[in-house]
């Protein structure tokens, strides 16, 4: 457990195409930390020197703790109303909540939080929908879309909605029907900013997880073992794909001359190569900067993972961060207020 925990320390800096064990450790870090905490207490009670191993492992993963927890007493930053930009990122799970008889009222979220820019992942809409009617349903007058999967009955992809004019946008094609990224240049009060919306490679382990549970119910140990190997191999492949996608996104960030905001569902944790590579040395994680308390964005796996992010470069000041708990999707939205430094008096 100490070896796996320590290897996770190197996950943000190690391309999984070269060595994938740190990436695996980074994804399962919540369980690894709990295991090491248990071992620390066990060896402390036994008064054995082994207590040092879990202790060192926990201390070395300081970066993980700051990625999921921030002081709830963090001091707020005062700001002048109307200078802020409110941006939100939300994986809407294909708007499947419509089928769950939950009122489809994303416009209310936009109005209640005065959202200016809304980045959506797993967007789904009927192809014959009128674009003007769709914009009204979201409460924002401008939008750009990248539908990388188009069926006769629906289009799937990602979208950026904006209160301000979108003057140009570009697609970042991963050659995937499930995942993609895009960027949009948005004109805000005479300044142009570039917003990236990302939906990186999905883990896709659910079918094999169900198969594992089926084997477990009939006590088929060989079937369980085979399925576990398949899951690990699938995770390894997806780590590599996400790494390559993050390199692709970062290349465009590096050629951008405008202030940059990066949003999206990364399907990976704050201690991952994909997250760290996209952030680079100039993108600030909004949660680390202005978040308070325990931060998670994914409702599955007991709410242990934060895999959705909003980040921004040195042109911006983070003001507020929130992630309201909603049962509509398997993700919670993340909402931030930020401000261009040049507008600060």
Automatic annotation (TrEMBL):
The keyword Disulfide bond does not apply. GO terms for molecular function: endonuclease activity. It comes from the Bacteria. InterPro entries: Endo/exonu/phosph_ase_sf, Endo/exonuclease/phosphatase, GPI-anchor_lipid_remodeler. The chain crosses the membrane at residues 20-42, 49-65. Pfam families: Exo_endo_phos. Keywords: Endonuclease, Hydrolase, Membrane, Nuclease, Transmembrane, Transmembrane helix. Residues 88-331 form the Endonuclease/exonuclease/phosphatase domain. This is Endonuclease/exonuclease/phosphatase family protein. The lineage of its organism: Bacteria, Pseudomonadati, Bacteroidota, Bacteroidia, Bacteroidales.
């Amino acid at each position: 457990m100490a070896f796996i925990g320590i290897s996770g320390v190197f996950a943000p800096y190690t391309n999984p195409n070269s060595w994938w064990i740190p990436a695996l450790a980074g994804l399962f870090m919540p369980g690894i930390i709990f295991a090491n905490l248990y071992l620390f207490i066990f060896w402390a009670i036994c008064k054995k020197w082994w207590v040092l191993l879990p202790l060192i492992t926990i201390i070395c993963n300081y970066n993980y703790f700051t990625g999921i927890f921030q002081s709830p007493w963090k001091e707020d930053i005062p700001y002048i109303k109307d200078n802020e930009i409110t941006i939100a990122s939300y994986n809407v799970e294909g708007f499947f909540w419509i089928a769950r008889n939950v009122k489809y009222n994303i416009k209310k979220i936009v109005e209640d939080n005065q959202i200016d820019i809304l980045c959506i992942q797993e967007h789904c809409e009927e192809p014959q929908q009128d674009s003007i009617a769709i914009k009204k349903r979201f409460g924002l007058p401008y939008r750009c879309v990248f539908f990388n999967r188009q069926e006769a009955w629906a289009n799937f992809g990602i979208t950026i909605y904006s209160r301000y004019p979108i003057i140009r946008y570009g697609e970042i094609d991963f050659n995937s029907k499930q995942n993609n990224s895009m960027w949009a240049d948005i004109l805000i009060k005479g300044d142009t900013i570039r917003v990236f919306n990302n939906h990186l490679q999905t883990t896709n382990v659910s079918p094999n997880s169900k198969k594992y549970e089926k084997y477990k119910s009939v006590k088929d140990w060989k079937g369980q073992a085979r399925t576990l190997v398949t899951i690990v191999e699938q995770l390894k492949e997806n780590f590599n794909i996400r790494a390559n996608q993050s390199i692709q996104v970062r290349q465009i960030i590096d050629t951008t001359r405008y202030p940059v905001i990066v949003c999206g569902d990364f399907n990976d944790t704050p201690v991952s190569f994909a997250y760290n590579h996209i952030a680079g040395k100039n993108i600030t994680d909004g949660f680390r900067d202005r978040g308070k308390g325990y931060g998670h964005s994914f409702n599955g796996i007991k709410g242990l993972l934060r895999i959705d992010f909003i980040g921004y470069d040195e042109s911006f000041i983070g003001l507020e961060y929130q992630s309201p708990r909603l049962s509509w999707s398997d993700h919670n939205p993340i909402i931030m207020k930020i401000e261009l430094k040049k507008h600060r008096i």
